[in-house]
Amino acid sequence: MEPHRLRTEPRALRLLEIVPSIKPHPPVVGKVTHHSIELYWDLEKKDKRQGPQEQWLRFSIEEEDPRMHNYGVIYTGYSTKHVIEGLEPRTLYKFRLKVTSPSGEYEYSPVVSVATTREPISSEHFHRAVNVNDEDLLLRILEGGTIKVDVPNKFGFTALMVAAQKGYTRLVKILVSNGTDVNLKNGSGKDSLMLACYAGHLDVVKYLRRHGASWDARDLGGCSALHWAADGGHCPVIDWMIKDGCEVDVVDTGSGWTPLMRVSAMTGSQKVASLLIEAGADVNVKDKDGKTPLMVAVLNNHEQLVQLLLEKGADASVKNEFGKGVLEMARVFDRQNVISLLEERKKKLPRKSSVH
Fold first, then answer.
1. Is pLDDT of 5 > 50?
2. pLDDT of the residue at 47
3. CATH code, 160
4. Which residues span the domain enclosing 325?
5. Helix 159-166 with 123-131: angle, nearest 10 deg
6. CA-to-CA distance for 264 and 291, rounded, in angstroms?
7. Considering all CA atoms of the chain, what is the largest pairwise distance in Å, rounded to the nearest integer?
8. Considering 59, 82, 115, which residue would you say is the last residue of a domain?
9. Is pLDDT larger for residue 196 or for residue 5?
10. Beta-carbon neighbour count of residue 64 at 10 Å?
């Protein structure tokens, strides 16, 4: 303390008790996280805080700008604690305490250096590891034990769903061995098996089946894995599913469509339709509105599929609930090539019927 700074005025003598007479201690570091640092000071309670607030010591916390090497005030007031938020993980910060007396005199503490911690492993890290097929990182996160294996991402997909959809077979095996539930569903009711079937990842499909995934599961539209496999159009997967005992004419609860109906409506794939028909799919099955696969194929102008269905015994004379047949439908929608096919078929029918 420099005595000459405070001479003989009675007020100044009184201030001798509260002006910082020696350099203040640096702030004491409290709780430190990856984004915050807690600082304390004046632990000896030198400031007794008697009388009005303007007679108290005022404290300021200043933080160093590492680029400019100067200090900026981040807190000022009468508290003896402050939490600095919004910091970067694994970063060094420098702070000092400024103590100001009521008369405006002040002293700085020595600087304290504090590093924030590493960002804790979150479910975002976990899902990022799965998305980029990072096997090592996934294993490290799972071994850490802080993340639940079935925590969903922001789209409601578990890690297994993502790995199954992307065909990351090794990740699927790691997740299953770490206790993931193979039968969990996302927001639309799809499970990992449906996603793998649609994407055509046969190795994943086989592995999930071995570990308890069911062909009987349905999504919110009542569709099964075979409906989704039909949409995906991957014949090796569909062939294996059928051989594994998957029901071929499974009906969804929305439109009353079988997988063959889905093909007729969506892709028009002859290859997929042939596989399903060879496995026993009914070519004349009717949906809730009385439509057959042939009608749906006509409406969607799947010319080659119309040809296939006719060859496989589809009934071209059937009517829907409004009494409309496939030829009328084709004419309404001006499906010229399909009209030709159906008319050719019609010409041949009398000759065929006379043989019986």
1. no
2. 54
3. 1.25.40.20
4. 221-356
5. 10
6. 11
7. 133
8. 115
9. 196
10. 17
What CATH number does residue 105 fall under? 2.60.40.10
Q: Which tokens is 142 given? A: 């799972």
Q: What is the mean pLDDT of residues 71-84?
A: 94
d(Cα 140, Cα 159) in Å, to the nearest integer? Answer: 15
Asked if the model's pLDDT at residue 7 lies above 50, the reply is: no
User: 13 and 100: one domain?
Assistant: yes
Q: Within 10 A of 344 (CB to CB), how many other CB atoms are there? A: 11
pLDDT category of residue 55 using cuts at 50, 70 and 90: confident
Q: What is the pLDDT at residue 348? A: 65
Amino acid, res. 23:
K
CA 180 to CA 158: how far, in whole Å?
9
Instruction: Note whether 310 and 347 are same-domain residues.
Output: yes
Count up the domains in the chain and report the number.
3
Radius of gyration of the chain (CA): 38
Is residue 211 over pLDDT 80? yes
CA distance 268 to 229: 14
